[in-house]
Design brief:
The complex is a heterodimer of chains A (300) and B (1101). Chain A is of the alpha/beta class and 300 residues long. Helices cover 37% and strands 26% of the residues of chain A. Chain A has a five-stranded mixed β-barrel. In chain A, helix 7 packs across helix 8. Chain B has 41 helices and 32 strands. In chain B, helix 20 runs antiparallel to helix 21 and helix 22 packs across helix 24. The longest helix of chain B has 29 residues. The radius of gyration of chain B is 31 Å and the shape is globular. Chain B starts with a helix and ends with a helix. The chains are: A alpha/beta (300), B alpha+beta (1101).
Chain lengths: 300, 1101
C-alpha cells in the first residue's frame, strides 16, 4: 500500500476561517494551521494534497500555504452538503488509491518519535487496510466527535478492529454499541481526525449519495460503519494528542501545546509562571491591603 | 419429613416443584425445627441466588403456617425488641439472627415464629427486589446516567431542529408523542410481575394488545389516549404540566426534580431523570439546574414537558401510568437524539430502550408497574415472553431471567384482519369504578410461586396452557371461543391462585350480564391484576350495540347498591376501543401548529394573567398569542376562551357548598360543639396530642403473672354446662361493634367495614356482618333459644347497615343501636405529625420508596401549615370530615338511646353480653367462655390472645402492679410492648348488672335519660381521651384520590380495664378465636392457615 495523496476538509460552515489562523509551531516559526496540516502530510511522504474549500476561499488559502501551494489542489464544495460530500468531491483527485485524510480544524501533536500522521500511515501500510486514529474520550465529549466500537487486536496495545462507527453518538447508543473492552468506564474511542482510507470508501459514499433524499446531507460516518463490515478496518490509539481549534479557547490551547512540545518549552513555562505570579500575587496583595484598612484578616 | 433442601436442589423438576406444605404435613415440631435449621444453614452456604431466595421463602412458610400449628409448641413467648427494630430498619439478616439467638436461649414459641416468619418474608422480597434494581441500573444504555455527577459531564444535547425558530417571537417546535395503552388477553397467572418473571422466565408469557380508547358518550372516536409534549422554552427552567391533574410547576432548582411526592408531577420528573435529561447521578449534587440546562439546551433556555391522558380514569388496568411514563421518556429521548427518528413510529431497538428506561423511572419514583406495561409502545397484538439470562447479559448470575422480555409482533399472516375486526366487534371494555390497591395481590402471587403451593402451581401451569389456546383461538378468529377461554382463565387459574382477584361486585356484574344477554354473552375478561376496575365483556357482534348501553346501566345499578360496602372511586364508564397498529409515534408541530393540548391553556393563561408582565417570557406570550389565533380559526377550540374565562372567574355554585352540607350532617347527629371546641383548643395549646396520649414515663409496666390470666382451655365441663344453660335460658346476647369505616381496611376509602363482602364462605361472598349473624344463628339453633344480636352503629354506618339488614337478614333477631356521638376531624398539628412519623417506630421502606415517603411527609406538613393546624377539616365530602369517637361510646350509646332498657324488657333474663369487634371473626358464644366468665366473677372479662409480631398496639400488662389492658397509644416506650405476652382481642364478656353498677345506674334508671346522660358523662371523664391520626381519602377528577392525615379524638373501650372498681378478668383464647382482620393483605394468610375454615364451622350459613 502506498499513500500518495491526502485530503483535507476545510469547507465546513462556520469553520472556514479556522485553517487560516496563525500559530507558532514547535520550531518557533509562524505558520497558518493549514500550512501545518499540509506540511505534516508532505513530511510523511504524501506527494499531493487536496484541500476541500468553500467557494471564494481559494485565494486566501493559497496565500496561507506559502511555497507549499504548488503541491496542493483545491476542490470547491459549492454547497454545504455534508462531511461525506466534501470527501466524495475529491474522488477524481485521489483516483482509486488509498489516501490520507485530515480534518482542517485540528492540530495534532505527537508525543512519540514519529508524527501523528506518520504513525497512522505506517500502520495502514503495515496492515494494508484503512486505519483511523482514535483517542479515548470521556462520554461527556461524545456530542463533538465520531466514535468507534470494536475489540482490541490480540497482542497489540494500540490497535483495535473497528466493528461500528457512529457520528456524535448519544451515551445511550455508545453504551449499547461502542463499548470497547479494556477502556475505563464512560470512555469511548473517538476519532482524532487522522485517517488512511481505502478507495472503497469513495464507492460507498457515491452509493449513499445516490440514495439521499431531498435536503439530506451526506455524512462520512455511515460510510465508515459500512467499511467496517466490508473489509478490515483498524483504529489506532496514536502516541499524540489532538486539539480542536474550533473549541472555546481551542486556538490558545493548541498554541500552548505546540509551544510546550518544542525547544522553547522552558521559556514558555517561565512565561506562564510569571503571568500567574504577577496576576495572583497582585490580587492577593490588593486583598491584603483592603483587609488591613478594614482591620480584618484576608481569607485564604 | 422430606428435606426441604433436597426439594430445592432436586434435578427433577417435579421434585423441585414440590409444595413445602406437602413436605411439612404431619411432621413433628422437632422435625420442623430441624428442617428450618437445615434451610437456614443452606441459605447461608449456597452461592445460588435462586436457592437462597427459595430457602428464605420456605423458612417463612415453616414459621408462618406449620411450626405455630404444632400442638406441642408454646403459644406465648417474647419477641426481642432489638430484633423488631432490625426489621423496622430493613436489617433483616440481623433481625433473623436476633430471633434465632432468642429461640436458642429460650426455646421456640409461636410468637417467636411469627417474628421469624415476618423477617424471612421481608428478606425474600427484599432479595428479589434487589435483583430487579441491580438489573435496572446495570442495564446497558442506562449505566452512563449514574456516572454523570456534574453539568460539565453531561453528554446529551437537544436536537437542533427543536432549537431553531424564525425569530425571538416565534414559538419553538413542539414534539408530541402519542401512545396507545395495552390490554392483556392473559397474563398467565400474573407472570408479568418483575420479581416472578425474572425468577421464572420460562413461565412468563403474556398476550398484549395496543389499543386506542374513547370514553363512550364523551369522546367522538378512539385515539391513542396517552400524549406527551416536549418543547424548548426561553427561560432557564423546567416547566412541567399535567393536563388531566390540572397541575403545573416551574422548576428552577435541581433538588426539586428529585422530589417526587411534592406535587402531582412525580411521573414527569421521573421521566426527565430516566430519559437522562437530568441524570440520576446528579441527585444530591450541588449543581444548578440552569447550568445543566445551559449544557443540554443552551444558554438562557429551558424545557417544557406536558402530559395528557385524555381523561382516562385511574385504575383502568390498562397500564395508563406506565404508558404515560414511557411516552414522556420517549419524547425526551427523541428530543435529545437518543432515538434517531425525531418523529414517526419507534424502531424496535428504541422501543426496548424506552421500555427499559420506563422500568428505571418506575423504580426511581418508587412506583411499580408490570413487565408488560410498556406494551403500548409496540403496535398491534404481540406475544411477550421472558428470556433466560445468558453469559452476555448483565443479569447473568443475578437472576435467572433478563429484565426485558422479548416482544414478538403477531402479524396479519398469523391473526388476520378479519379476526382483529371480529374481536373489536365483540369486546366491550369498561371501567367498573372500583379503586383498589393491587400491590398486596402481587406479593401474594409471588409468595405462592416461590413456595410452589400445589394447587396454585398447577393453576399456573394451566394458565400457561390457556395462553397457547387463546393464541390458537386468535389465529382461527374464534372470538366466541376466546370469550370462553378468558372466562375459564378468570374462574380457573386466576381465582385458584388469588381468590381476592374476584369480588362481589364483579361477580354480580357477570351474573346480571349473563341474565340480560343469555347466549349473546360470550365471556368475561379480567384486565390487569384484579377485577372491579378495567374489565372486558364479550358479546355476539349483533348484541354489542345493545351491550354498550346496557352495561352502563347494569354497572351503575350494581355500584349504587354496593357503594357503602365496596371502595368505588368513580361512576363506571364504557369505552369504545380500536386496536392500534402503529404503536407509539411522534409528530413535529411547527409554526402555527406548535401548540400544547387545549386544556393546557386553561392552566397556563390564567397563570400568565396573574403574573407580573415582566415575569412572562416572550416565548410564553408568543405561545398564548398563537393559541388565541388558533381559537379563532379552529372550530374545536371555539369554546376554549369561555372555559379559560370561567377558570379565572368561576361562576358561583348553585348550592351553598360543602360547609353547609357538613353543618347539616353535624346537626343531625348530635355533634357536641362545646366538647369539640374544648378538644380543638386543648390540641392547639398542646394539652392533648400524640405525645400526651402516653402514660407517665415512670409507670411500672411489665408482663402479667401466671395467675392474672386464665386459659380458655382450662374451662371445665361445669363451665361449659353453665354456659349451655345460660344460652338455653336466653341470658346471653351479642354486641357487634360496627360504627367504623375501616380506615386501614380500605385505606381511608370510607366504606362500611361491617358490610364489606371480603371473602367467599359456604359458596357465597359474605360481609363481616353476615359472618357474625351466621354464628348467632348457629348458637340459637343448637341452644334452642333465639340470641339477641345488637349491632352498634355510627351516623356513618347506621343507614347502610339498616338498609342491608332489611334487605338480607329480615328474619334475624338483630337490633341496631344508633350512634349518639360524632366528632369533626381536625387538621393535625405539625408536632403531632412529626411525632407520628419521626419519633414513633415506622417500618422503613425500600430505599427509593422511603425517599418518596419522606418527600410526601414534607408536603403533608406543608399542607397542615397552610390549612391551619388544629382547624376544622372541612375540605372533603361531609362523610369524610366527621368521625366516630371511639368504641368506648358504643355501650354507653345503648344506655342513652334506650336500647338496653328495651332489650331487658324484651329479654328479662338477659344478664350477659359478648361484645366484639367487627373484624374478630372467630369470636362466638362459646359455652365454656360464658361459664368461665361467670366463674371468674368480674364485671368485665376480656379475651386476650398470644401476641405475634403483627399484633401492634398495646396488650395486657401489669401497670404499677395491677393487670390491665394498655393501648399502644398509651405505651410510654415502644419496647415495653414487646415484654407483653398477650394482645387484646377486644372481645369482652359483660355482666349487665355489674356494668350498670359501674355507671352508677340501676335498671329503672335506664328509662330516665337525664340520669343516664349524667352517668355516661361521669364515666367518660374517668377514661382518657386519645388524639389519633387517621388517613382520609379525598377524591377528585377521574378516579384520582389523595390521602390526607387528619386528627380526631377517641375514647377506647379497653381503658375500662384500668378502672379499679371494674375488677376485670382475663381469658387467654386461641388465635383462631381472637385474631382480628385489619388489613386486606392478611386475607390470604387467614385463608391458608385454616382460620377461614375454622370460622366457617362456627356459623349456620
Amino acid at each position: 500500500m502506498r499513500i500518495a495523496r491526502a485530503v483535507i476538509t476545510a469547507a465546513g460552515e462556520g469553520q472556514r476561517h479556522l485553517p487560516l489562523q496563525t500559530l507558532v509551531d514547535g520550531n518557533g516559526e509562524t505558520r497558518s494551521l493549514l500550512s501545518l496540516l499540509v506540511g505534516s502530510a508532505l513530511e510523511a511522504g504524501v506527494e499531493e494534497v487536496c484541500v476541500v474549500i468553500a467557494p471564494g476561499d481559494q485565494e486566501a488559502y493559497g496565500r496561507a500555504l506559502g511555497e507549499a501551494v504548488s503541491r496542493v489542489v483545491f476542490v470547491v464544495q459549492s454547497h454545504p452538503n455534508g462531511y461525506g460530500d466534501a470527501v466524495l468531491r475529491t474522488a477524481s483527485v485521489v483516483g482509486g488509491e488509498p489516501f490520507l485524510h485530515l480534518i482542517g480544524d485540528h492540530v495534532f501533536i505527537s508525543t512519540g518519535q514519529r508524527t501523528c500522521v506518520e504513525q497512522v500511515i505506517e500502520t495502514a501500510v503495515a496492515h494494508e487496510c484503512s486505519v483511523s486514529a482514535v483517542v479515548a474520550t470521556r462520554e461527556s465529549m461524545l456530542p463533538r466527535f465520531g466514535a468507534i466500537g470494536g475489540r482490541r487486536v490480540p497482542g497489540s496495545s494500540r490497535l483495535f478492529e473497528v466493528e461500528h462507527v457512529r457520528e456524535k453518538p448519544t451515551p445511550t447508543e455508545a453504551e449499547q454499541m461502542l463499548v470497547v473492552p479494556g477502556l475505563r468506564a464512560g470512555h469511548y474511542l473517538c476519532f482524532s481526525g487522522v485517517h488512511v482510507l481505502t478507495p472503497s470508501v469513495m464507492e460507498t459514499l457515491a452509493r449513499h449519495a445516490a440514495a439521499l433524499g431531498d435536503g439530506e446531507r451526506l455524512e462520512l460516518s455511515p460510510a465508515l460503519d459500512e467499511l467496517a463490515r466490508r473489509e478490515r478496518y483498524l483504529a489506532m490509539e496514536m502516541d499524540g494528542l489532538r486539539y480542536a481549534v474550533d473549541a472555546r479557547f481551542g486556538l490558545m490551547t493548541a498554541q500552548l501545546a505546540l509551544a510546550l512540545s518544542g525547544p522553547d518549552r522552558a521559556d514558555v513555562l517561565a512565561e506562564i509562571c510569571t503571568l500567574l505570579a504577577e496576576r495572583e500575587l497582585g490580587r492577593f496583595a490588593r486583598e491584603s491591603d483592603a483587609c488591613s484598612e478594614a482591620g480584618a484578616e484576608p481569607i485564604r | 419429613m422430606i428435606s426441604p433442601v433436597d426439594i430445592i436442589r432436586a434435578g427433577n423438576p417435579q421434585e423441585r416443584n414440590t409444595d413445602i406444605a406437602a413436605a411439612a404435613r404431619g411432621a413433628s415440631l422437632r422435625e420442623l425445627l430441624a428442617a428450618a435449621d437445615e434451610l437456614e444453614a443452606f441459605r447461608h452456604a449456597s452461592d445460588s441466588l435462586y436457592e437462597r431466595v427459595r430457602a428464605c421463602a420456605m423458612l417463612y412458610a415453616l414459621h408462618r403456617f406449620h411450626i405455630p400449628m404444632c400442638a406441642e409448641i408454646e403459644q406465648t413467648g417474647r419477641i426481642p425488641f432489638h430484633g423488631f427494630e432490625h426489621v423496622l430498619h430493613r436489617r433483616f439478616e440481623e433481625a433473623i439472627s436476633a430471633f434465632l439467638q432468642h429461640q436458642a436461649e429460650r426455646g421456640p414459641s409461636a410468637a417467636l415464629s411469627s417474628a421469624l416468619a415476618g423477617a424471612y418474608h421481608r428478606l425474600t422480597f427484599q432479595t428479589l427486589a434487589d435483583q430487579v434494581r441491580r438489573s435496572v441500573r446495570s442495564s446497558v444504555g442506562n449505566r452512563w446516567m449514574f456516572r454523570v455527577g456534574h453539568p460539565a459531564d453531561h453528554p446529551l444535547r437537544v436536537r437542533p431542529e427543536l432549537l431553531a425558530r424564525a425569530d425571538d417571537r416565534s414559538p419553538f417546535t413542539v414534539l408530541c408523542e402519542k401512545t396507545p395503552v395495552r390490554m392483556d388477553l392473559t397474563h398467565s397467572g400474573w407472570s408479568d410481575i418483575f420479581l416472578l418473571a425474572m425468577d421464572y422466565p420460562e413461565g412468563a408469557r403474556v398476550i398484549n394488545v395496543s389499543v386506542d380508547l374513547a370514553v363512550r358518550g364523551r369522546d367522538s372516536s378512539p385515539r391513542p389516549p396517552v400524549e406527551a409534549y416536549f418543547r424548548v422554552i426561553d427561560e432557564p427552567v423546567i416547566r412541567l404540566a399535567s393536563v388531566d391533574l390540572g397541575a403545573s410547576a416551574r422548576v428552577a432548582d435541581l433538588a426539586e426534580v428529585f422530589d417526587f411526592a411534592r406535587d402531582y408531577l412525580g411521573l414527569l420528573k421521573a421521566a426527565l431523570i430516566a430519559s437522562g435529561i437530568i441524570p440520576p447521578g446528579l441527585e444530591g449534587s450541588d449543581a444548578r439546574l440552569s447550568d445543566v440546562l445551559r449544557c443540554v439546551v443552551g444558554p438562557g433556555l429551558g424545557i417544557e414537558l406536558v402530559s395528557c391522558v385524555n381523561g382516562i380514569p385511574k385504575g383502568s388496568r390498562l397500564a395508563v401510568s406506565t404508558t404515560l411514563l414511557a411516552a414522556l421518556i420517549a419524547v425526551c429521548m427523541r428530543a435529545t437524539g437518543q432515538i434517531r427518528a425525531l418523529d414517526g413510529p419507534l424502531a424496535e431497538a428504541d422501543r426496548r430502550m424506552v421500555a427499559s428506561r420506563a422500568i428505571l423511572g418506575e423504580w426511581l419514583a418508587g412506583s411499580g408497574g408490570g413487565w408488560q406495561d410498556s406494551g403500548g409502545l409496540w403496535p398491534g397484538i404481540k406475544l411477550i415472553e421472558g428470556q433466560q439470562a445468558g453469559p452476555q447479559d448483565p443479569e447473568f448470575g443475578i437472576s435467572r431471567g433478563r429484565l426485558l422480555p422479548s416482544h414478538r409482533l403477531i402479524g396479519r399472516d398469523e391473526v388476520s384482519d378479519a379476526s382483529r375486526e371480529a374481536l373489536e366487534r365483540s369486546l366491550v371494555l369498561v371501567h367498573g369504578g372500583m379503586a383498589q390497591n393491587v400491590g398486596p395481590i402481587l406479593e401474594m402471587v409471588t409468595e405462592k410461586y416461590l413456595l410452589r403451593c400445589a394447587a396454585e402451581w398447577e393453576a399456573r401451569l394451566d394458565a400457561g396452557r390457556l395462553l397457547d389456546r387463546i393464541l390458537d383461538l386468535l389465529r382461527s378468529g374464534d372470538v366466541r371461543g376466546l370469550g370462553q377461554a378468558t372466562t375459564q382463565n378468570y374462574v380457573g387459574p386466576i381465582q385458584t391462585i388469588i381468590p381476592w382477584a374476584a369480588n362481589h361486585y364483579t361477580e354480580t356484574l357477570i351474573r346480571r350480564v349473563g341474565e340480560a344477554f343469555g347466549d349473546d354473552f360470550w365471556g368475561f375478561w379480567m384486565l390487569g391484576g384484579m377485577s372491579g376496575g378495567g374489565m372486558g365483556f364479550m358479546f355476539a357482534p349483533e348484541a354489542k350495540t345493545r351491550a354498550l348501553d346496557e352495561l352502563q346501566a347494569i354497572m351503575g345499578c350494581a355500584k349504587r347498591s354496593m357503594e357503602a360496602s365496596l371502595p368505588f372511586a368513580m361512576d363506571p364508564v364504557v369505552y369504545e376501543f380500536a386496536i392500534n397498529d402503529r404503536g407509539s409515534a411522534a409528530d413535529r408541530l411547527e409554526g402555527p401548529q406548535a401548540l400544547m393540548p387545549a386544556d393546557y391553556y386553561l392552566m397556563a393563561i390564567p397563570d400568565m394573567v396573574s403574573s407580573p408582565p415582566a415575569a412572562v417570557s416572550s416565548g410564553r406570550r408568543a405561545d398564548a398569542h398563537a393559541f388565541g389565533l388558533a381559537c379563532r380559526t379552529h372550530a374545536e377550540l371555539s369554546e376554549a376562551p369561555r372555559a379559560i374565562f370561567e377558570r379565572m372567574l368561576p361562576p358561583l355554585p348553585v348550592t351553598q357548598g360543602r360547609a353547609d352540607d357538613l353543618a347539616e350532617v353535624l346537626a343531625a347527629n348530635g355533634f357536641d360543639e362545646e366538647e369539640h371546641e374544648q378538644i380543638r383548643s386543648d390540641m392547639r395549646r398542646g394539652r392533648i396530642g400524640l405525645a400526651q396520649n402516653r402514660l407517665p414515663v415512670n409507670s411500672d409496666i411489665r408482663d402479667v403473672e401466671p395467675g392474672d390470666v386464665t386459659a380458655l382451655t382450662d374451662a371445665t365441663d361445669d363451665d361449659r354446662a353453665v354456659g349451655m344453660a345460660a344460652l338455653a335460658a336466653g341470658e346471653v346476647a351479642v354486641v357487634t361493634l360496627a360504627a367504623g369505616v375501616g380506615s386501614r381496611w380500605t385505606q381511608g376509602a370510607g366504606v362500611v367495614k361491617a358490610l364489606h363482602p371480603f371473602a367467599r364462605m359456604a359458596g357465597e361472598y359474605r360481609c363481616f356482618l353476615d359472618v357474625h349473624l351466621a354464628k348467632s344463628r348457629r348458637v340459637a339453633r343448637t341452644s334452642g333459644t333465639p340470641v339477641p344480636h345488637i349491632v352498634t352503629t355510627s351516623n356513618l354506618t347506621e343507614a347502610p347497615i339498616r338498609e342491608y339488614l332489611d334487605r338480607s337478614h329480615v328474619e334475624e333477631s338483630v337490633i341496631v343501636s344508633p350512634g349518639r356521638s360524632i366528632g369533626l376531624r381536625l387538621i393535625p398539628m405539625v408536632h403531632d405529625l412529626r411525632f407520628l412519623w419521626e419519633e414513633q417506630p415506622q417500618q422503613i421502606l425500600d430505599e427509593r420508596a422511603q425517599r418518596v415517603r419522606e418527600s410526601l411527609h414534607a408536603a403533608l406538613i406543608g399542607w397542615a401549615r397552610s390549612m391551619g393546624e388544629g382547624s376544622d377539616y372541612t375540605d372533603n365530602a361531609p362523610a369524610q370530615c366527621i368521625h366516630p369517637v371511639g368504641h368506648w361510646y358504643e355501650v354507653p350509646n345503648m344506655l342513652k338511646n334506650g336500647l338496653l332498657a328495651d332489650l331487658l324488657d324484651r329479654y328479662p333474663r338477659l344478664n350477659t353480653l359478648m361484645l366484639h369487634n367487627i373484624d374478630t371473626l372467630g369470636a362466638d358464644l362459646a359455652p365454656e367462655a360464658i361459664g368461665l366468665h361467670r366463674r371468674l366473677g368480674g364485671a368485665l372479662t376480656f379475651e386476650v390472645i398470644p401476641r405475634w409480631l403483627e399484633d401492634r398496639g398495646g396488650g395486657l400488662a401489669r401497670v404499677n402492679g395491677f393487670p390491665r389492658l394498655v393501648e399502644g397509644l398509651a405505651m410510654p416506650r415502644e419496647e415495653q410492648e414487646f415484654d407483653l405476652s398477650y394482645y387484646n382481642s377486644m372481645t369482652t364478656w359483660i355482666d349487665i348488672p355489674a356494668l350498670l353498677r359501674l355507671f352508677g345506674l340501676n335498671r329503672d334508671d335506664l328509662r330516665r335519660p337525664e340520669r343516664v346522660n349524667a352517668a355516661v358523662r361521669a364515666a367518660a371523664a374517668r377514661v382518657p381521651t386519645y388524639i389519633t391520626i387517621k388517613d382520609v381519602k379525598r377524591r377528585w377528577g377521574y378516579a384520582q384520590e389523595d390521602v390526607f392525615p387528619v386528627a380526631q379524638f377517641e375514647k377506647l373501650w379497653s381503658d375500662l380495664s384500668g378502672l379499679p372498681d371494674v375488677q376485670p378478668r382475663y381469658i387467654a383464647v386461641p388465635r383462631l378465636r381472637g385474631q382480628q382482620l385489619k388489613d386486606q393483605a392478611q386475607l390470604d394468610g387467614w385463608l391458608r392457615d385454616g382460620s377461614a375454615a375454622y370460622v366457617e364451622t362456627l356459623g349456620d350459613w
